[in-house]
Amino acid sequence: MENNALAAIASQVRRDIVRMVSAVNSGHPGGSLGCADFLTFLYFEQMQHNPAFDMQGNNEDLFFLSNGHISPVWYSVLSRAGYFPKEELGTFRKLGTRLQGHPSTDKGLPGIRMASGSLGQGLSVGVGAAQIKKLNKDQSLVYTLHGDGELQEGQIWEAAMYAAANKVDNLIATIDANGRQIDGDVEDVLSLGDLAQKWQAFGWEVLTMNGHDFDSIRIAMQQAKSLTGKGKPIVIIMKTEMGQGVDYMMGSHKWHGVAPNAEQLTVALNQLEETLGDY
Amino acid sequence: MEFEVLGNKDTRSGFGEGLAELGQNNPDVVALCADLTGSLKMDAFQKANPDRFFQAGIAEANMIGLAAGMAIAGKIPFTGTFANFSTGRVYDQIRQSVAYAKKNVKICASHAGLTLGEDGATHQVLEDIGMMRMLPNMTVIVPADFNQTKQATIAIAAHEGPVYLRFGRPVMPIFVKPDAKFVIGKADILTEGTDVTIIACGHMVWKSIEALKELHEMGISAELINMHTIKPLDEAAILKSVAKTGCVVTAEEHMMNGGLGEAVSQVLSRNNPVAQEYVAVNDTFGESGTPMELMTKYHIDTPDVVAAVKRAIARKSIVI
Fold it and tell me: Which domain does A134 fall in, by range?
């Protein structure tokens, strides 16, 4: 897909995000905005997937959102990719909705195969799903996304060790390296040290990309795909800016889990072009 | 009243045999273990189905997540480790990735309760039934002997949804017939009686069978129910029995808080509040010792069942 077409979708996704969280005065806009370009690329260019959703997902690429709090960006991208009508985005976090605060399977929202929210669990799930693809001789891939703060959870490293030891080489994990978490900068809250070296030491292929540059994303994702089937799991450290696209949300951790009020929403929407039509 | 002892074996071996049989008959069954393959008797499955066996190492949280991911494409994952590491250690993983997400994972837990023995309180989980029965979507099964554990292992593979299967380490008498049909959620009425209903699970079913002889000599007619499924609980069987007997003793190798007894008392309080006495561990950790020494010391032995029956019947006559 052309970069400007991807950018147009991502702009609409960002509008959806800020409108969704503002409408219910809750939710997590910062990380959602930061991953809008990546998830747009994943669903509109990278993955072989079927919006006529089937839970088992055999012979199609699977995606697991481990940092479930950025559900707004995923819901928007799923909807814009055809999994469910965009009007349903207006039900986000409201009583009875399929668009729960954190992703869930129990309300049956198409596109979602696992509950997430309590952090650190999605890599294990992705590794398990990838191993079954191998067992089933299914050539498709498994993608996961994690926050950098989420890497403070020990289960991530259990899964990292396991995936390398078992040569789970049909899995591409991406780290949203925005350097922010609720209490402040990741570096200050609990430093991850040299993240690339950590993953390398755990036996993974490590790539990096700029999560706001579609050329950079494309190069890394194509390289990641070319590295599958070679005995090692693959991780991409994706540099992003929390709140990307809304100037007053960028450069700080403060908009991790705070919704803009009506006035702030207007300012945000003035910075984000409506390209596909608001829900 | 006579129960034929068909042999003596540990319930974990029943799990191992059941899993091995599933390995032969059901290509969707996969198994995961956290460095306790021998203890869980999973070796036979591993040997026969190396491609469907996943060694997770000492990393139980990851094992539960792997199992949840494996269930998505239609596999039926059986995880195996000690009961303590199958529940408390991984509660949040089970809660989110298995129970809430409704994944078809079978959490198979050995060395439950005091009868793990010499390893002591760090490993003797007595809270696991409570933790698991609190989770929506979770089925909780505590089979009574080797044969029943094998039958339950095979039965849960055919049941769609998360299951917690609890069994143990000590060699105990086998009394369930090898060809008995295991039905999830349907209690086994072992003896019919009119004076008291004894509702037991796991190893305490045999301890209750042992108590029957003494109760019979005392002229007490006891109805013994093997409540192998704690959730969903067979409420109809409980209510039908207490309508006849008017009092209940529950017997379990678990804390009084949260276990079978509490599940039964909920049914009674809502429907027919009769006297109930508990044979269970009362708000204390265990310690090192042989399984049978510990059952005696912590009052979950045969004499404790007899004493509880006497108390329950005494309370019944006061009420009348």
Answer: 3-270
